[in-house]
Design goal:
By secondary structure, the protein is an alpha+beta fold. The chain has 11 helices and 35 strands. Strands 2, 3, 6, 7 and 8 form a 5-stranded antiparallel β-sheet that branches. The protein is globular. Mean pLDDT is 80; it is low at 2-18, 21-29, 545-562 and 717-727.
Length: 727
């Protein structure tokens, strides 16, 4: 764990010796003191020395190069390094400074500038030495290029909206490394590892010149983590563990919250919860903590029968590998087995985590195809073997290190550490929200609580057998929030809809529990909130006298409304299949009316929220009437309804360029029931046909260019008059 950011040990002024030295600038005497400081690991002092030289001459190539490589290679602050490396790049011949191109390429990768990074990496690759260190560097550069290509391919796709990421702020993070978040099963507190100047020993590890690791603790109050404190400070959980002057790191906790793993004294330890306090940590056996090897992390399966840990012991595939040890009948751990090339690579694999059901193993790898640095992957476990890992993609993964992933029991939230752009510096801890999964268990626990004022559930108390009942999630105005998903249950059956309102057939009489689960997303807080409650619906046999024939009353407005699309169907990308799963709500109209009712505007606002999240999708709207009145009249009425919808969308910022076309179905175009001509239906059945439907048909539409007016040809037999010349 102490070596999460370990790189090839390269001093800024020695980096050049990994490359063929062609036209390399030599540092002058004025830089020697700064270089000596770097060699001694006095990076902060070296920075101050470089900055003094920079203040005297900001155009000196060696000063800019030294500052840039120092920030990039040792401080791991690519944002701080970038302006100095760019300045050095401008001040020299671009094709004779491979060490400069190498560091600048890594900064470009950090910022997601993949194409620029690829060119710089490829150019620096031409100058790599053929010695042992050069061969290692060549493999590293080729992996960087591969990562850039993966990131570049992803950049041309629509961004993943499944996850939302939240930086945990100054209560948890600093500009020093903060990582390995471990949250208890109830979500009440967090333990994590940090490398800060105020550690117990107040000293640095000579191996990487970073402060020794300490464990910190933060308690959650009203949904927010409080200011983190050293584990030695006042806290309610760890009386038997104290940080030392050496490395002390928290590793993981079992999903039941009863075992806690640590890294200390160059090995893995475990402590158990007695129901009152944690026991004194015990070192794991020698077959796991192998002498003269490094085992930084471990995770235990939910049933307690498997331990997956990382190790660089002899005989592995390369770097840190993941191994699995099984619990034996006598309570001992069996001989560890390498998880094989299906998971492990010649690079590092680390930070494994079992899901709460034991069916997924999350871990980080530097060797699998990814976006840069460590990426997070998931592998399915069938009880015997692990499947081919799947990259979690952005925004979970970034061009930098992403590691120590964990996820809640209901898979709706979790934590990880990342050195991505936008943090405070080095590694920071983030929380993520999975926006597409309901938390039904937590939903059931909230049924008796006061329901939120901005969401309400409308459903009839009584309906008839084999009649459609409308279940409606009314939504009032949210402040900086919008409803993202609507999930429904009838008794224990999840309904196949993600709409704020839907109609349901009740086939048998009896009492039914209808449950609504709403996920609300906050732009300002980057969080999700769960709103949930239920209603009981009594289903009874319908008496025959309830059938009522309703005669329509028509408006004689015969004005013609013409509506056309503004995009070319041939230019729409229909390969992004995940966007066709986005549900958009149908809206309904009163008899013979085209104005939007209040409930229709509410449903439209839900649709607009989804359109604003998924900014590139293109929709088709289809307007309908019920079967009554003439076809000509119904066609005009459906056009009016469609125009009302387009107007409302436009007022809310959804322009016609995102609407492919409007299909005016008119009389009996697509009835949802058998209420056609000469049918006696209830008004609620006719209501289902007076509607406008919305459907996603693709992404990234290209506007159709307006045709150029054709030039009129002169009439036959007439000569075109000659132009008069100017005087």
């Amino acid at each position: 764990m102490a070596n999460i950011r370990k790189r090839i040990a390269i001093l800024p002024f020695l980096l050049v010796f990994l490359f063929i030295q062609k036209g390399i600038s030599q540092s002058g005497i004025k830089l020697k003191h700064a270089e000596i400081m770097v060699a001694e690991g006095k990076y902060e002092s070296a920075i101050q020395k470089y900055l003094k030289l920079y203040k005297k001459d900001s155009t000196d190539f060696d000063t800019n190069l030294g500052l840039g490589i120092l920030f990039e290679e040792y401080i791991y602050d690519e944002d701080a390094a970038l302006p100095y490396l760019e300045a050095a790049y401008r001040l020299t011949k671009k094709d004779t400074q491979p060490e400069l191109m190498f560091s600048l390429a890594k900064c470009r990768l950090h910022n997601g500038k993949y194409e620029l990074a690829i060119n710089l990496f490829k150019h620096s690759l031409n100058y790599v030495n053929d010695d042992a260190d050069g061969k290692i560097l060549r493999i590293q550069i080729e992996k960087y290029i591969e990562n850039c290509k993966v990131g570049s391919d992803y950049n041309i796709k629509v961004k993943n909206k499944k996850f939302r990421i939240k930086h945990l702020g100054p209560e948890i993070n600093t500009h020093y490394p903060d990582y390995a978040p471990v949250v208890d099963s109830a979500g009440n507190y967090m333990l994590f590892t940090t490398r800060r100047p105020d550690n117990v020993g107040r000293s640095k590890d000579v191996y990487d010149n970073k402060y020794f690791e300490d464990i910190y603790y933060s308690e959650k109050n009203q949904g927010k983590f409080l200011q983190a404190v050293d584990l030695d400070g006042p806290n309610p959980i760890m009386d038997v563990y104290a940080n030392s002057a050496d490395h002390d790191a928290v590793v993981s906790m079992t999903t039941d919250g009863k075992k806690l793993f640590f890294y200390k004294d160059n090995g893995l330890y475990v402590s158990e919860w007695s129901g009152v306090l944690w026991t004194k940590p015990e070192r794991l056996p020698a077959m796991i903590n192998v002498a003269d090897s490094y085992e930084p992390h471990a995770t235990m399966s939910p049933d307690g029968k498997m331990l997956v840990f990382s190790s660089n012991k002899t005989g592995g595939i390369g770097g840190l590998d993941l191994y699995m040890s099984k619990l034996q009948a006598d309570g001992s751990w069996g001989e560890p087995e390498n998880l094989s090339t299906n998971v492990n690579t010649p690079e590092n694999e680390d930070g494994a985590y079992f899901s709460h059901d034991g069916k997924q193993l999350y871990f980080s790898s530097k060797g699998l195809s990814g976006y840069g640095g460590y990426d997070i992957y998931v592998s399915e476990f069938n009880g015997t073997e692990f499947s081919k890992p799947v990259n979690l993609e952005p925004p979970i993964n970034s061009p930098n290190d992403d590691i120590y992933f964990s996820i809640s029991r209901d898979q709706t939230t979790g934590y990880f550490a990342s050195s991505r752009k936008g943090g405070y510096g080095d590694m920071d801890i983030y929380q993520f929200y999975e926006m597409d999964k309901p938390a039904w268990k937590s939903c059931m626990e909230k049924n008796n609580q006061k329901r939120p004022s901005n969401v309400f559930f409308k459903a009839p108390d009584t309906v008839y057998v084999n009649e459609l009942a409308l279940l409606d999630a009314g939504v009032s105005q949210f402040k900086n929030e919008y409803p993202y998903h609507f999930y429904w249950k009838i008794n224990d059956s999840v309904m196949p809809t993600d709409s704020s309102r839907f109609f349901h057939y009740f086939r048998k009489n009896g009492t039914y529990d209808a449950t609504l689960f709403v996920i609300v997303f906050s732009d300002s807080l980057v969080t999700r909130e769960n709103y949930c409650y239920s209603r009981k619906i009594q289903v009874i046999e319908r008496p025959r006298k309830d059938i009522v024939k309703i005669e329509p009353v028509f408006n004689k407005d015969e004005s013609k409304i013409s509506i056309t699309g503004t995009v070319d169907t041939k230019k729409i990308d229909t390969t992004q299949l995940q966007y066709f799963k986005i549900a958009l709500d149908t809206i309904y109209f009163d008899l013979n009316k085209s104005n939007l009712r209040k409930d229709a505007m509410t449903a439209m606002d839900v649709n607009i929220g989804r359109l604003k999240v998924n900014t590139k999708i293109v929709i088709k709207i289809t307007a309908h009437t019920d079967s009554r009145a003439s076809s000509d009249y119904n066609l005009k009425l459906s056009q009016k309804r469609a125009q009302a919808v387009i107007t409302y969308l436009g007022k809310k910022g959804i322009g016609k360029k995102r609407i492919l076309a409007v299909i005016n179905m008119g009389k009996e175009g697509q009835l949802v029931n058998n209420c056609g001509d000469n049918k006696d239906c209830l008004e609620r059945q006719y209501q289902l046909n007076r509607r406008v439907d919305f459907k996603v048909i693709g992404v990234e539409a290209v506007p159709v260019p307006k045709p150029k007016p054709e030039k009129k040809k002169p009439a036959a037999g007439k000569k075109t008059p000659a132009k008069k010349s100017g005087k």
